[in-house]
């Protein structure tokens, strides 16, 4: 990138030792390393932001092309929509068929006949109410 050769690095080191001094050289090198790390992180952050913007623009273009092609196909083949709806369940309006079981909420757990001092038969199988469950923050703590 900068095209610095070995002889130029040697000259920089000799000048740095003469100006900074051998005692303060390790601290100066640490500080220079920190600056390089900050610059590298900032450049990676900018690069990832640009990559994200490019990816989103490409996805928008692909979505526009897909919609245009889909509209063209539907214009050329109007009977295709009926065929798709026949084979693709997500394209049909939802109706309850005889094959599908009716969805209903679970019944609350039955109270045990055991005395109050004894544990219920399936105490470990019962879940606490949703209000007592801990609230987990989604999306935090990842990479």
UniProtKB/TrEMBL annotation:
Keyword terms of this UniProt record: Cell membrane, Membrane, Protein transport, Translocation, Transmembrane, Transmembrane helix, Transport
Gene Ontology cellular-component annotations: TAT protein transport complex
Oligomer status and interactors: The Tat system comprises two distinct complexes: a TatABC complex, containing multiple copies of TatA, TatB and TatC subunits, and a separate TatA complex, containing only TatA subunits. Substrates initially bind to the TatABC complex, which probably triggers association of the separate TatA complex to form the active translocon.
Family designation: Belongs to the TatB family.
Subcellular location per the Swiss-Prot or TrEMBL entry: Cell membrane; Membrane
Function: Part of the twin-arginine translocation (Tat) system that transports large folded proteins containing a characteristic twin-arginine motif in their signal peptide across membranes. Together with TatC, TatB is part of a receptor directly interacting with Tat signal peptides. TatB may form an oligomeric binding site that transiently accommodates folded Tat precursor proteins before their translocation.
Lineage of the organism: Bacteria, Pseudomonadati, Pseudomonadota, Alphaproteobacteria, Sphingomonadales
Organism field: Alteriqipengyuania halimionae
Main location: membrane
Membrane-spanning intervals of the chain: 6-22
UniProt protein name: Sec-independent protein translocase protein TatB
GO BP terms in the entry: protein transport by the Tat complex
GO terms assigned for molecular function: protein transmembrane transporter activity
Protein's membrane topology: Single-pass membrane protein
Pfam families recorded: TatA_B_E
Positions of region (Disordered): 77-143
């Amino acid at each position: 990138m900068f095209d610095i050769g070995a002889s130029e690095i040697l000259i920089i080191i000799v000048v740095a030792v003469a100006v900074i001094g051998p005692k303060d050289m390790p601290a100066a090198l640490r500080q220079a390393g920190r600056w390089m790390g900050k610059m590298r992180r900032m450049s990676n952050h900018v690069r990832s932001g640009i990559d994200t913007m490019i990816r989103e623009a490409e996805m928008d273009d692909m979505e526009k092309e897909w919609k245009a092609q889909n509209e063209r196909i539907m214009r050329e083949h109007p009977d295709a929509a009926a065929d798709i709806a026949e084979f693709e369940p997500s394209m049909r309006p939802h109706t309850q068929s005889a094959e599908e079981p009716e969805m209903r909420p679970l019944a609350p757990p039955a109270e045990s006949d055991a005395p109050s001092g004894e544990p219920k038969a399936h105490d470990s199988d019962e879940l606490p109410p949703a209000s007592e469950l801990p609230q987990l923050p989604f999306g935090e703590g990842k990479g």
